[in-house]
């Protein structure tokens, strides 16, 4: 006598319904993770923009500080 391995029969309707629910949950988790990453990206971009703005402003101030005396000398020479 040959024994057949045990098998599980799942009702296709219940399985499909369960699979649909799991797909919806998976989609909600993916959307939530995407929103969290987008917010983190915005915060990082804002912080980097602040640093770049500070550096550019400092460079402009230093350049203006060096150029104004030369411009005033040039104006007085004329």
Automatic annotation (TrEMBL):
Question: What pathway does the UniProt record associate with this protein?
Answer: One-carbon metabolism; methanogenesis from CO(2); methyl-coenzyme M from 5,10-methylene-5,6,7,8-tetrahydromethanopterin: step 2/2
Q: Which residues form a coiled coil?
A: none
A GO-annotated cellular component:
plasma membrane
EC nos: 7.2.1.4
- A GO biological process this protein is involved in? methylation
The record's catalysed reaction(s) read:
5-methyl-5,6,7,8-tetrahydromethanopterin + coenzyme M + 2 Na(+)(in) = 5,6,7,8-tetrahydromethanopterin + methyl-coenzyme M + 2 Na(+)(out)
Q: What InterPro entries does the entry give?
A: THM_MeTrfase_su_G
Q: How does it sit in the membrane?
A: Single-pass membrane protein
Chain ranges passing through the membrane: 49-68
Q: Where in the cell is it found?
A: Cell membrane
| Function (record text) | Part of a complex that catalyzes the formation of methyl-coenzyme M and tetrahydromethanopterin from coenzyme M and methyl-tetrahydromethanopterin. This is an energy-conserving, sodium-ion translocating step.
Record's family?
Belongs to the MtrG family.
What is the protein's quaternary organization? The complex is composed of 8 subunits; MtrA, MtrB, MtrC, MtrD, MtrE, MtrF, MtrG and MtrH.
Recorded protein name is: Tetrahydromethanopterin S-methyltransferase subunit G
* Species this protein is from: Methanofervidicoccus abyssi
């Amino acid at each position: 006598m040959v024994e057949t391995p045990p098998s599980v029969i799942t009702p296709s309707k219940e399985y499909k319904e369960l699979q649909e629910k799991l797909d919806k949950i998976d989609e909600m988790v993916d959307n939530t993770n995407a929103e969290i990453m987008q917010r983190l990206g915005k915060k990082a971009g804002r912080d980097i923009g602040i640093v770049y703005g500070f550096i550019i402003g400092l460079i402009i101030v230093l350049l203006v500080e060096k150029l104004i005396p030369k411009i005033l000398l040039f104006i007085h020479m004329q």
